[in-house]
Amino acid sequence: MTATTQRIAAEVVVRTAREYLRVSKGRNRSTKSTRDQHSDNLAAELDHGPWAWGEPYEDTGSASKYARKIRDDFEQMLADLQSGAFGKPGDVLVLWEISRLARETGRGVALVDACEDGGYLIHITSHERTYNPANYQDRHSLISGINDAEKEARLLSARTLRGLNGAAREGRPQGQLPFGYRRDYEVVDGRPRPVTQYPDPETGPLVKELYERVAGVDSRLPEPMYAIARDWEKRGVTGKNGKAFTPQSLRSMLLRPANAGLRKHNGVLTPEQWEGWTPIVGRELFDQVQRLLADPSRRNYTGEHIQHVLTMTIKCDVCGAGMVVVTRRRKGSRDAVGYQCGARGHVWIPKAETDRVLIGDLEAADLETREPRPVLGVILAYLSAPQRLARLRRPAADRTEAEAAVRAELDGLRAELEVLEAAPRPKTARARLQRTADMEELEQDAAALEAKLARMTAPDPLEGILPTDPGADLVAWWEAAGVQRQRAVAGLLLAPEVLGQVRVMRAPSRTSVPVTERLRWVRAE
């Protein structure tokens, strides 16, 4: 090698290249195409390198604005480009094709701007070209490609929505077959189309069982989803993929309007049921479960493992975690049983004294007569007033004037929305935009009223648990109720909206202080 050749070789700039690999994962797809992209990108280095390969960014999911899943590595890549953490000026962002970047023009332009500001290059392998965003022609080519990708994504969305709306108008089911259902098909326009949907004899009863157990029908206590998932796993119940159900998948199943023969469009639940679509559960049970799932104060308080009334209901004042029962072993003296912070062990408080304050001492005796005379704690003292029991037992079906007004307003909004949807397509673009804006405003108002109505009609969780006779022996009822029902009452009364959330503070010193001085009550404003 001559001196001139050595000098030229030394002057060759080796840039760092970092790939963004993305694949839309769906039916019959896998992440294999990311390996194909990587192979093509490596081959591109022979003509456009040399490159030193840095750590790649990789996502599985759609780049469309309609995608629900957040592309974590895309967000990280954009942040790195904007902060300079991507690399040195002149380094290269390598993409297999422009549509892998973004199918929303605004997001794509932001990334091109970040590359221009940082002095980075963009190589599109399918174009066989490296672009410099600082060059006006290269910038125009990149943004045009992103704009074309957005157009294709919107066109695909419009076609899909048109098909869904057509199926809805004809009363046909659409989308994937939900767990618990079967479908009948017939050939329409040369393609098999679902025409009827009805409960599967084997899996349909399981879906109905799930709703009933979560709602607690027939005077049963509601069950937490983790307990149902564990029970189904023991019974060998699996989903269509052959895997056991998780609490999260059970929750998703409960939220599915199809189980009640309903359809949700643009966030609004249609009020009617569809012909040819037999529901698994009734609308009343479906709505009851939706209210339970939407209630932020919902507590999972049942299960065979429960042994103590106040665990996880009273909280650590340091971190807010629930308190659990812990036994402290002591040499040469009696073991100490108390409530301790379940997260980090920040605080500890004697259990017997705490129970006496919050629940009561049901085995106490009169000092003079030595006869049993229970001492009522905060919870039982609150329930001892007949007027409070009557208020807590308010029936869920109670229809007030305010509720009737909200229902009437909601029906009016739905009627207006139906008129707009059935109206002929406006001729001008401005009119079409205005109609779309009007429909979106109506849908948002309807969603807000549905949420308000759900709060107004929510059944009292204590209904069916509290004694029905105002003159009943409260202590006898409490003892006969069992730990699960006692825990239900304690969890719902010791809430910020009722008596207040109980938080256990740290002891001020090694000196023993009364339990009452370490309990802080947090009430809703």
Task: Describe what this molecule looks like in 3D.
- Helices cover 42% and strands 15% of the residues.
- The protein is α/β, with parallel strands linked by helices and 525 residues long.
- The protein has 4 domains: 3-156, Resolvase, N-terminal catalytic domain (Rossmann fold, 3-Layer(aba) Sandwich); 181-294, Putative Large Serine Recombinase, Chain B, Domain 2 (Hect, E3 ligase catalytic domain fold, Alpha-Beta Complex); 315-394 and 464-522, no CATH class; 401-456.
- The strands form 6 sheets. Strands 1, 2, 3, 4, 5 and 6 form a 6-stranded mixed sheet that branches.
- The model is unreliable at 26-31, 63-69, 299-304 and 395-399 (pLDDT under 50).
Number of domains: 4
- What is the CATH topology assignment of the largest domain? Rossmann fold
Question: Would you count the extended β strands for me?
Answer: 18
Task: State the name of the first-level CATH class of the largest domain.
Answer: Alpha Beta
Query: How does the overall form come out from the CA principal axes?
Result: extended
Give the fraction of residues assigned to helices. Answer: 40-55%
Architecture (CATH level 2) name of the largest domain: 3-Layer(aba) Sandwich
Indicate the proportion of strand residues: 5-15%
Mean pLDDT, rounded to whole units? 77
- In CATH terms, the superfamily of the largest domain is Resolvase, N-terminal catalytic domain
